[in-house]
Amino acid sequence: MMKNSVLLLCCAALFACKQPAQKQNSADTDTAKIQTSAANKLITPGRSIGDIVLSEDVTNVSQLLGRPDSSDAAMGSSLMVWYTGHKADGYRTSVFAHRKMGEKDEIISRIQKILVNSPEFKTAEGLGVGSTVDEIKKSYNLKPTSDYQNKNGKVQVYTDLDKGISFEVDTAGKCVGVVVHQPHDTAAAYFNMH
């Protein structure tokens, strides 16, 4: 009788070990992702904006933010855009990534440039969208690098190449977008993400 009880216990334990793990509620997982990314709104020149980090695999961004609202890819490069509330008039997060063709890790598309236009993201100095160009110049050595037209007029892009950061400034002298790229990467600094 004891032998049968031990055998029954062993079978029950084996059966329990082979059961699939209980699935975590996907709503809980999504909430955790949102809270994690909402907590990090720091712009770190030459490194990251929030949880999006330069040189990392761009698939990490899709895991963090979900499917992009807009994307375009060609010749080993891709540009992906996410809008707040998935509405084109919402705040924008854009990521430019590129594959190094012929390299040993050419299958990985690495993040080269990140752009945000939400005032929630700030540098350690408290600078970002809404800051004036004069305020920004107190902390960064800015040089005009390019410009573009938006619905409100001309936007001048100022870049601190040594630190790896660019600020898009409207005609009123206010920052309307912040871009992070590798220090001294002139190709990324000049690439228009609009």
Integer-rounded radius of gyration: 23 Å
What is the H-and-E element order?
HHEEEHEEEEEHEEEEH
Write down how many β-strands occur, each being a DSSP E stretch of 2 or more residues.
Answer: 12
SSE-based structural type: alpha+beta
The helix tally amounts to: 5
Rough outline: globular
Report, as a whole number of angstroms, the end-to-end distance: 77 Å
Q: For the report, how would you describe the main beta sheet?
A: 8 strands, antiparallel
- Could you give the order of strands across the largest sheet? 4-5-6-7-12-11-10-9
The helix content is 10-25%
If you had to describe this structure to a student in words, what would you say it looks like?
By secondary structure, this protein is of the alpha+beta class. The chain has helices spanning 2-17, 26-39, 59-65, 133-137, 186-190; strands at residues 42-44, 48-49, 52-53, 70-74, 77-83, 92-99, 109-116, 122-123, 143-150, 153-160, 165-169, 175-181. The strands form two sheets. Strands 4-5-6-7-12-11-10-9 form an eight-stranded antiparallel beta sheet. Strands 3-2-1-8 form a four-stranded mixed beta sheet, with no helix packed on it. A hairpin with a 3-residue loop joins β1 (42-44) and β2 (48-49).
